[in-house]
Design goal:
The protein is an alpha+beta fold. About 35% of the residues lie in helices and about 20% in strands.
Length: about 110
């Protein structure tokens, strides 16, 4: 007697973990992928590329000491305001050096 072969179940059916569970675990624990690419010609290093990828939640990244996005003006409005304030103060200082106080026009 022969039995029909059983086909594998589609993803998401009958499995203990769905995509949301897996993503939650990855973000909670964090995943690091690291690799180096090195190109040599006759024992002379021509190019080295170091790749590092970290996948984690913001809280987990901060816990690991990674918070570079908070200081990047392109990613943080607070950092952008700090950068503009610093730039404005520098421009005012340079303007004062160029215009003596008596020659400055009232605005």
């Amino acid at each position: 007697m022969t039995t029909a072969s059983r086909l594998p179940e589609p993803y998401g059916q009958g499995s203990g973990a769905n995509l949301a569970d897996i993503l939650e675990r990855v973000l909670d624990k964090g995943v690091v992928i690291a690799g180096d690419i090195r190109i040599n010609l006759l024992d002379i290093e021509l190019l080295t590329i170091k790749l590092r990828l970290i996948v984690a939640s913001v809280d987990k990244a901060k816990e690991m000491g990674i918070d570079w996005w908070e200081e990047d003006p392109a990613l943080s409005s607070r950092a952008r305001r700090r950068e503009l304030t610093r730039e404005n103060a520098e421009l005012r200082r340079r303007l004062e050096e160029l215009e003596p106080a008596g020659e400055r026009k009232e605005r």
